[in-house]
């Protein structure tokens, strides 16, 4: 039987199996890290409709394709 610590490590490593650009969604923190913007700016972009998000329970998820579109239109 595996320990809880090994299960946590396995879960963390499974997260990285899908490359970021192929993921459907990411957290606000991951979006900030990926594109180099602050949380406040990400929420402003969501409010303005430039970035798409959805809420599942209390968790806000950012649609990765909308981040790509944002970066493509800003170039």
Description:
By secondary structure, the protein is an alpha+beta fold. The protein has a single domain (21-74), classed as Orthogonal Bundle (Arc Repressor Mutant, subunit A), CATH 1.10.10. The protein has 4 helices and 3 strands, in the order H-E-H-H-E-E-H. The chain has helices at residues 4-15, 28-35, 39-48, 64-74, and strands at 25-27, 53-56, 59-63. Strands 1-3-2 form a 3-stranded antiparallel β-sheet. It is globular, with a radius of gyration of 15 Å.
Give a short account of the largest sheet.
Answer: 3 strands, antiparallel
| Poorly predicted runs of 5 or more residues | none
Spatial arrangement of strands, main beta sheet? 1-3-2
- End-to-end gap: 52 Å
Mean pLDDT score: 85
Strand content: 15-25%
Our Rg estimate from Cα atoms comes to: 15 Å
Q: How many E strands?
A: 3
Structural category is alpha+beta
SS field, number of helical segments: 4
The structural domain count equals 1
| CATH level-1 class | Mainly Alpha
Name given to the CATH architecture: Orthogonal Bundle
Envelope shape: globular
Would you list the SSEs in sequence order as H and E? HEHHEEH
| Share in helix | 40-55%
CATH topology label: Arc Repressor Mutant, subunit A
């Amino acid at each position: 039987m595996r320990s809880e610590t090994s299960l946590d490590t396995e879960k963390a490593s499974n997260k990285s199996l899908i490359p970021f650009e192929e993921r459907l969604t990411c957290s606000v923190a991951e979006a900030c890290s990926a594109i180099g913007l602050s949380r406040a700016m990400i929420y402003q972009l969501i409010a303005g409709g430039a970035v798409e998000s959805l809420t599942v329970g209390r968790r806000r998820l950012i649609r990765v394709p909308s981040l790509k579109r944002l970066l493509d239109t800003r170039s």
